[in-house]
Amino acid sequence: MDTEYETPLFFHVMEYAGNADTDVIDMVSGNPDWEPPAALRDGLHEYADSNPDQFQYPPSEGVLELREEIAERRGVATEQVVITNGAGEANYLAMARALERDRGSEIVLTEPVYPYYPGKTTMLGGTTNFVETAADGQLEPDDVRAAASDETAAIVVNSPNNPTGAVYSRETIRELVAIAEEHDAILVSDEVYDHFDLTGRFASALEFDSDHRIVTNAFSKSLAITGFRVGYAIFPPDLVENAKSRHMLVNVAGSRPSQYAVLHALRETGPNYYEQNRDRLRERVETFTDALDAAGAEYTTPQGAFYVMARFDGYPGTLENVERLIDETGVAGMPGEAFGDSRREWLRFALVSPRVEEAAERLARYFE
C-alpha cells in the first residue's frame, strides 16, 4: 500500500518568503540568530588539526566521550545514550521503539502539535490521538489519562513547548510518566528547549525513575547550531539496543567533527552563556507582545522556548493569509493551521531574529 507524506508547511512558507520581491523578516524557522559559544569554534579549529584517523566514521551510537558527558550531566548510564541526527531523529527512534513493542499502535499527541510528530507517526505506521491543551498551552494530565488506552504505544510531549511556549509543571510530568506506566506505554519527552525555560520551573522526565519514558534533546537550540545536527535520546536499558540498530541502519553514524565541537563547547561553556540568551529572549518577548497589544491582538506569552502565537481579529491563520502577510508587511510567520485544528485562527512567530522590534512595528501598523 502506498503511503503519502505531506511536506511540512515550514518549507513552503520559507520558499515563498525567499522568493518574495520585498524585504522579508524571517519569523518562521527556529534558527537562533546569536553566536554559538566561543568554545564551539575553538573545538572546530582544534579538530581541523586532528590526525586523519579522526576524519573517519565515529562509533555509530556516538563519540564515547560525548555520550559520557551527557550521561554524567543527565544522571544516567552511558549505555542508555544514543547520539542522533538532531532531536528529529531522536524523536523518530523513540517513537519507533514505542511502536515496536507491540503494545498498541496509537500515539497520543497534544493539540496544538509540532507538525513533525504526526508526520513521524504516519511514517511509522501508527495512528494519532490528539489531546487539546488549555488556551495558554498547559496540558491537563486527566485529559491525557482519559485519552490513553491499551492501544496507546506512546505519549509524546514537548516542554518547553513549540508552538505555545508552555512549560509543564513537575506534577504534570510526574503524572504523564504514571499514565504511561498504567498503560504499558512510553512517554516520549522532547526537551530540546530546556535551556530556554523562562520560569525556572522546568522539570525533566528524567527526574522520575521509570522504564516507560524516553527523553530526547539536542544542542541545536541551546548552542545555536541547528546546522550541526547533534541530538541525543536517553532510553531505558531494555529499549536501547534496537534503537542503536535502527540508528545504524538509517544513518550508519553521525558527524564526528560536530560531536567533537559540541563536546568541547559543553566542557568549556559556563552557565552565563545560557543566561544571556534567556535574557535576550525575555526582552524580545516583551518587545513583541507590546506591539501585539498595540495591534489589538490576542496572544500567548511564552514561559519557554521562543515562539509567540497571535490571533488578529478577522485574520485566520491560513497559509493564504501568511503569504499575504509576507507580501504586504514583509513579515513571515507560520500558519496556525500547521499546528492543528485548535489554532486555525492563529499565527506563530519565532523570536529568533535581530529584527524582532522592526517586525513588531510592521505588524502593529498593519493591524492597527
From TrEMBL:
Keywords: Aminotransferase, Pyridoxal phosphate, Transferase. The keyword Transferase applies. Residues 22-362 form the Aminotransferase class I/classII large domain. The keyword Transferase applies. GO terms for biological process: amino acid metabolic process. Its cofactor is pyridoxal 5'-phosphate. InterPro entries: Aminotransferase_I/II_large, AspAT/PAT-like, PyrdxlP-dep_Trfase, PyrdxlP-dep_Trfase_major. One of its GO terms (molecular function) is transaminase activity. Homodimer. Belongs to the class-I pyridoxal-phosphate-dependent aminotransferase family. This is Class I and II aminotransferase. It comes from Natrialba magadii (strain ATCC 43099 / DSM 3394 / CCM 3739 / CIP 104546 / IAM 13178 / JCM 8861 / NBRC 102185 / NCIMB 2190 / MS3).
